[in-house]
Design goal:
mainly alpha, rod-shaped
Amino acid sequence: MAPGNSVTVIHRQQVSPALFNRIKNLEMANVGAKTRRVEQEKKLSSQTSRIKSLESRLWNREQQLDSQAIEIKTLQTEIADLRTLREADMVTIKRHEFLIKHHGDFLKDRVHKQLKYFKESLKSEMIKSNDQERKLDDKLALYQSMLMENQKRELREELALHEANLIQKAKQMILTELLGLETRSDGDIGRKPDLQIVCSSNIHGVYGPIQVTKSIFKTNMIKH
């Protein structure tokens, strides 16, 4: 049998028409089956490629999911840690708020007491200062009065001493003038008396010895 010849062509004279038709139908069915097989193989190959692509995508997705799962677990751990820290911070904050309130109340009460004590002390010090200032003013006035009295007394004493010295000097000058008059009276008879003799004539006058002394002293000062 040559290649490509069908069985029906070779054995057509040796078989019955029914068998021949059946073989013919089988051959046609076989060709159709081969065609469908090729199509199925192509389809299967396409599906295999698609399955491989899907498997690759699935594997990549699984890797991503695994990575995301790890990241999620890490985030969950961090969240849990942050919640723990937050709870600890809340406890610390509440404790600090309590301490701040307690210290604030304590400081407020203490400052209030200190201010009250300071005001009372300041008031007392002001009263003491005013009393001391009044006492110092009284002492100063007393000292000033005593000083003025002492100064007046000293001035009176100095004035009295000065007047006594002046009187003594005046007496000496009068005696000197009188003695001079006696020595000149013999040689100067008829001469007019000078101002000294006129002033000395008031020794027993109305003004008294002090006025006479002052007049004679002034006369001598004018002469000199």
